[in-house]
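Let's practice the habit of predicting before peeking. Look at the sequence and jot down your guess about where helices and strands might fall. Then scroll down.
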Amino acid sequence: MNNRLESVLNSTAPEEPVINNYDTITSAINSVNEEEEFRDPLGKARSIIITPLRPIDQEQYTVRINTWRRNELLLASIDHHSRCDGVAQVQVLWNDPDNPPPEEIVNHKSGLVIIEDHTSMNSLNERFRVLTDDTPTLGILNIDDDVLYPCEAIDTGFFLWKNFPKRIVGYDKRSHAINPSTGEWIYGKLNDVSKSNKYSMTLTRYCFIHVDYLSIYTQYLPRGIFDVVHHQKNCEDIAMSLLVSALTDGQAPLLADNWALRSIIKLHVDRKISGDSNHLIMRGACVHSFARILELHPEQRTPLQLLPVPASTSDAVFRKNFNTADNNLHLTEREKKLRRSLAHWSSENIDLERKELMRRAMEFALPLGLVVETFENSLRVGKKIKEKQIKHVIRNKLQISCGICDQEIQVAKKSYKSDRRAFLLKYSLLSKNWQEEIM
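Done guessing? Here is the structure:
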């Protein structure tokens, strides 16, 4: 273990409140030793040659699940991912010092589960510290315990990654933007990406990444970034995304196929860090300062790319411009199998086929009530519509004033139960896409 990592792991984590002021966060990052960081903050990391893929790395990957006291979600995630053909091993990052992992997880029926004990340190940096000896594959599917994708959607990302193993392949698109009043970078949320149709980062809650980058993050990430992630319990995904971009000439991550991105299944959690009012303030400070330290600003060594979001043509199941192996003879056996299974997809049936894959992926989580209950998700999986979901439609989708909400909800419920088409006609303010979704 290098001295920098050891000093952080052995530190008594600060008891002071998490910093939530932009200037204070920036000052904390800027306080790093310039002699150490700014000559070339990634000098040693740049000299590392990423390990070439072996035959097994063309076919399989290792899942790493970050979890914290959500055993039902964790088990549902393991049950789902362990049945995907491409999974060689499932590594569970156990962070709970007060409770041991349940027996059904330790001795999971799949025989694929390895428990990594990360209880000695409460830090988001831990999700990138590999403790398992001889991880079977170089490809890592790094995930949170509250997100699922169908196995086929996972494979589209994996087969793209194996062609570009030096890049991250993600399932979330995010960006940086410029604050017009200050000229500093800010964090671009999903809505911002949708408006600009450009992205530059991805989230590590679900992404493929070369295992070597996990070691590089742990050993060579500039101290200022490492410490901010540790103390503020945020921005580890920004740090990793920008780190890999800095090591690949400023290239943005790649994204899995568009239909795969739309196949996300969110599991229910009681509280999200992103719900904190200071969350975006902190992430904006992280984006601006991390990018400056990693020399990704326009005037610096490797300016960060803003890439156009891949076109969402529904029949483009595989994006030819990203595939280097169009000749079927160069495809792996699993890739050939996946292409055969999706060969009948077209612009007419792709949404129905995608939803069927999602239903299968929900097999373990849905009976336990773990799938987030949105109006659209309930319709998708054939569940009974709850009053709170109708209320969401009335208030948010239709923007009907709350003064008549209760009365309108009762009318809407009766209309929905008796005739779904009449329901849509009556509430004609529903968008065309949303109408298609629930029909």
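How did you do? The two ends are 56 Å apart (CA to CA).
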